């Protein structure tokens, strides 16, 4: 069965997309820990990120780097933090999180409450900066 992220990539489930190329897809996390919290996923459905072959993993990091540059340009923050957890959705993904302090990366705290309209606006700003 396709993962929820494969369904998002296929357009079967809506998302706030920020970037895409032939191999990867980036969209806003639906339960963000910070404004602009973005997920980067490979279109190839693989559960564990370290099961990706080296060249694909390398290209995924380079794609994430371009997305992070767009986030940095679009959102007020000190830098973009990167983390991999992957216990909830069995489809490899990188979290890219705009941060001004370490605690912005903390998944244990209450998630932000952001309206769909604000998510759409944030995604639009990041998309505009993606090169
Ligand atoms: P992890 O697998 O890294 O522990 O967490 C998966 C992440 O995917 C969570 O931060 C969760 O909010 C996000 N997520 C789960 N389902 C959806 C969804 O349907 N749409 C979006 N945009 N994000 C999702």
Describe this structure in words.
It is a single chain. This protein is α+β, with helices and mostly antiparallel strands and 131 residues long. It has one domain (4-129): HIT family, subunit A (2-Layer Sandwich). The protein contains three helices and five strands, in the order H-E-E-E-H-E-E-H. The mean pLDDT is 96. Bound molecules: guanosine-5'-monophosphate. Residues 4, 13, 15, 27-31, 39, 85-89, 93 line the site of guanosine-5'-monophosphate.
Number of continuous helical runs = 3
Radius of gyration over all CA atoms, rounded? 14 Å
What is the average per-residue confidence, as pLDDT, rounded to a whole number? 96
- CA-to-CA gap between the ends? 33 Å
Tell me the name of the CATH homologous superfamily. Answer: HIT-like
Order of helices and strands: HEEEHEEH
Helix content: 25-40%
Report the biggest beta sheet as strand number plus sense, adding barrel if it closes.
5 strands, antiparallel
Question: What is the CATH class?
Answer: Alpha Beta
Brief description of this entry?
By secondary structure, the chain is of the alpha+beta class. It has helices at residues 4-9, 54-74, 116-129, and strands at residues 17-20, 24-28, 38-42, 79-83, 94-99.
SSE inventory with pairings:
Elements: H1 4-9, E1 17-20, E2 24-28, E3 38-42, H2 54-74, E4 79-83, E5 94-99, H3 116-129
Antiparallel strand pairs: 1-2, 2-3, 3-5, 4-5
Helix pairs in contact: 2-3
The protein binds guanosine-5'-monophosphate.
């Amino acid at each position: 069965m396709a993962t929820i992220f494969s369904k998002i990539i296929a357009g079967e489930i809506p998302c706030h997309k920020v970037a895409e190329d032939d191999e990867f897809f980036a969209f806003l996390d639906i339960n963000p820990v910070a404004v602009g919290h973005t997920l980067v996923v490979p279109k190839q459905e693989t559960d564990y990120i370290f099961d990706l072959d080296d060249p694909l993993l390398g290209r995924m990091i380079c794609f994430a780097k371009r997305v992070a540059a767009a986030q940095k340009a679009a959102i007020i923050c000190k830098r973009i933090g990167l983390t991999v957890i992957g216990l909830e959705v069995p489809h490899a993904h990188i979290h890219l999180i705009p941060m001004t302090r370490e605690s912005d990366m903390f998944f244990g705290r209450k998630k932000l409450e952001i309206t769909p309209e604000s998510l759409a606006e944030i995604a639009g700003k990041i998309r505009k900066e993606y090169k």
